[in-house]
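Q: what sequence does this backbone want?
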């Protein structure tokens, strides 16, 4: 398993998680994304300076998911974390591998002090995963997101460089 830059050949794998039944727990509505939307994202990601997106791939270079550092702020030493994986990669350790690798990049290569994320309260699987990795809950924006005519709380988590052990 390894992380590498996103490639156009990853588009169909990205659409797989976007169109899966589990995509309803994301804040953004990925379900309506097309292959053209994803290809445009991949192309833009290759020159984006404020966001880093990597594909996590298996030993045969097959796409398993995407892990990202977004809104990278080198002046204030923080960035936002995001992750999404195809359903067949769930439970394989790929998400843990990718998360630990991108956190190493954040804290060692980029010299960041904090990586943060937000998650809908209904995304129980993600919340358990983030807490297992070491992210700490730091707040809740109550009734912050309206999606599919429902109102959701948004939880905020972070992990500091000094808390990251790897």
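A:
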């Amino acid at each position: 398993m390894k992380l590498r830059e996103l490639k156009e050949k990853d588009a169909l794998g990205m659409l797989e998680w976007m169109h899966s039944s589990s995509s309803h727990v994301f804040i953004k509505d990925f379900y309506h994304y097309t292959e053209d939307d994803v290809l445009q994202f991949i192309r833009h990601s290759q020159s984006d300076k404020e966001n880093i997106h990597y594909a996590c791939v298996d030993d045969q270079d097959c796409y398993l998911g995407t892990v990202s550092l977004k809104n990278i702020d080198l002046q204030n030493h923080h960035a936002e974390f995001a992750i999404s994986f195809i359903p067949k990669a769930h439970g394989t350790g790929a998400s843990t591998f990718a998360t630990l690798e991108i956190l190493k990049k954040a804290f060692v290569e980029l010299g960041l002090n904090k990586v943060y994320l937000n998650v809908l309260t209904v995304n129980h699987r993600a919340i358990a995963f983030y807490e297992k990795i070491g992210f700490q809950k730091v707040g809740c924006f109550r009734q912050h997101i309206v999606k599919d005519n429902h109102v959701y709380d948004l939880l905020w988590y972070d992990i500091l460089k000094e808390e990251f052990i790897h």
